[in-house]
Amino acid sequence: MFTGIIQAVGTVVSLDARGGDARLVVDARALDLADVAIGDSIAVAGVCLTVVAIDGARWAADVSAETLARTTLGTLVAGVGVNLEKALRLADRLGGHLVSGHVDGVGAVLGIDDDGASQRWRFRVPRALARYIAVKGSICVDGTSLTVNEVGDADFGVTLIPHTLAVTTFGARRVGDAVNIEVDLMARYAERLAGAGADPG
């Protein structure tokens, strides 16, 4: 589990095909790997990956064909920045919201407009995901926990403050860029419970 509070922006070193899968190597840069061990989880652009190798500030993960097909990771190239977050510990503060690192779909940046020192961003999402997004609810975009301002049939809007723009990859994003979307876990559980009906027992 994660919180959606980005701890560092890393740099992709390589993404090498291995059959249908790939080996991703990331330079963690400012992310402290001292407490990271083989088998631990790190979210890369919102995607939970398992650490399989560590070499100084660099670490590697194997990315399955399923993950490559359902997220933006398959489009990564050397030199690109990626949001990083180590897995949540039970003693940590939950500054964002509960994030699983299991991406629900790929969206795209629709618009970016200045709003004082902040910016208002709109994202397109697959229509099937829009029903899980609520005004003032939480959503995870490229691993970043954001608060929803508005929702349309297949899009939503948020406000990004200067701090978020400075410490995540959003500062380098442009209209049309693809992004990983994870809806709030609570919305999915609520739908499941609502559709379960009364217990016949």
TrEMBL record:
**Which keywords does UniProt give here?**
Repeat, Riboflavin biosynthesis, Transferase
Q: Where is the signal peptide?
A: none
UniProt Lumazine-binding repeat ranges: 1-97, 98-194
- Give the stretches traversing the membrane: none
Q: Which reaction does it catalyse?
A: 2 6,7-dimethyl-8-(1-D-ribityl)lumazine + H(+) = 5-amino-6-(D-ribitylamino)uracil + riboflavin
Give the pathway annotation.
Answer: Cofactor biosynthesis; riboflavin biosynthesis; riboflavin from 2-hydroxy-3-oxobutyl phosphate and 5-amino-6-(D-ribitylamino)uracil: step 2/2
NCBIfam families attached here? PRK09289.1, PRK13020.1, ribE
Per its UniProt record, what PROSITE patterns does this chain match? LUMAZINE_BIND
Q: How does it assemble?
A: Homotrimer.
Q: What are the GO BP annotations of this UniProt entry?
A: riboflavin biosynthetic process
A GO molecular function annotation here is: riboflavin synthase activity
**Stretches assigned to the Lumazine-binding domain:** 1-97, 98-194
What is the designated name of this protein?
A: Riboflavin synthase
What species was this sequence derived from?
Answer: Dokdonella fugitiva
Could you say which EC number(s) this protein's record lists? 2.5.1.9
The UniProt entry, under Pfam families, shows:
Lum_binding
The record describes the protein's role as: Catalyzes the dismutation of two molecules of 6,7-dimethyl-8-ribityllumazine, resulting in the formation of riboflavin and 5-amino-6-(D-ribitylamino)uracil.
